[in-house]
């Protein structure tokens, strides 16, 4: 499929899902710079628009809504891309300050916030493409387009357990994990044993009887298997 056809389908799909201000924001906001990003950068990098949301509504630190140019959701990891025009702030120091504060706030909310220079994208798109390829390499390596689905090596519960282990200094205790993930303890134990067999977890014996009350995560904190 060509970019023009897929881009139009993508925009029309999002328009059909929106109403009121959200629909108007997409009609107003997806202009010259954003379309250029979609074509020269995203389409070149990905070849599809799966998980990418144009003019995506978020809240700032005051609880006020505004729309970022693009939000990409890959396996629960959220990336925000903003196309920045040199003249977009003019001499308005307040707007410049608010935009910086919004970016800082989004990062505090665990978004990966990435600003793209419109001038650089026009004059040197290969630089932007190469930089994004490096930044997103971990995530690109585990996403495959196949009938619109993302193919993953590990199931959701397994990924949740690995992520949980990282948050708790690489240790998972089934009883505690069951409460946090709202699962039955035996279900957690089942998937912990599965991760042991796959080389991601190590059982940690305790006491003279060497009973297993916890598991240690052995993988990298940046492993693509976490996505």
List keywords for this structure.
alpha+beta; three-stranded antiparallel β-sheet; four-stranded mixed β-sheet; 10 helices; Endonuclease, Chain A; 227 residues; Arc Repressor Mutant, subunit A
Describe, in plain words, how this protein is organized in 3D.
The protein has 227 residues and is an alpha+beta fold. It folds into two domains: 148 residues, Endonuclease, Chain A (3-Layer(aba) Sandwich), CATH 3.40.960; 71 residues, Orthogonal Bundle (Arc Repressor Mutant, subunit A), CATH 1.10.10.10. 48% of the residues lie in helices and 23% in strands. The protein is built from ten helices and nine strands. The chain has a four-stranded mixed β-sheet with strand order 1-2-3-4, sandwiched between helices. Strands 7-9-8 form a three-stranded antiparallel β-sheet. A two-stranded antiparallel ribbon has the order 5-6. It is elongated, with a radius of gyration of 21 Å. About 3% of the residues have low confidence. This is DUF559 domain-containing protein.
């Amino acid at each position: 499929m060509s970019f023009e056809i897929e881009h139009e389908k993508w925009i029309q799909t999002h328009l059909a899902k929106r109403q009121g201000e959200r629909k108007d924001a997409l009609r107003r906001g997806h202009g010259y710079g954003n379309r250029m990003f979609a074509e020269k950068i995203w389409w070149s990098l990905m070849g599809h628009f799966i998980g990418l949301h144009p003019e995506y509504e978020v809240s700032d630190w005051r609880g006020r809504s505004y729309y970022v140019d693009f939000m990409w959701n890959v396996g629960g990891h959220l990336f925000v891309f903003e196309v920045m025009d040199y003249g977009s702030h003019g001499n308005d120091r307040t707007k410049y300050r608010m935009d910086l504060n919004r970016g800082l706030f989004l990062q505090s909310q665990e978004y990966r916030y990435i600003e793209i220079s419109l001038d650089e994208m026009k004059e040197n798109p290969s630089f932007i493409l190469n930089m994004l390829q490096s930044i997103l390499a971990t995530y690109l390596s585990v996403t495959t387009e196949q009938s619109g689905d993302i193919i993953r090596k590990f199931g959701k519960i397994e990924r949740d357990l690995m992520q949980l282990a990282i948050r708790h200094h690489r240790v998972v205790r089934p009883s505690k994990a069951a409460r946090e993930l709202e699962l039955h303890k035996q279900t957690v134990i089942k998937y912990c044993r599965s991760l042991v067999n796959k080389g991601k977890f190590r059982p940690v014996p305790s006491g003279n009887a060497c009973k297993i009350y916890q598991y240690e995560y052995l993988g990298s904190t940046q492993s693509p298997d976490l996505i």
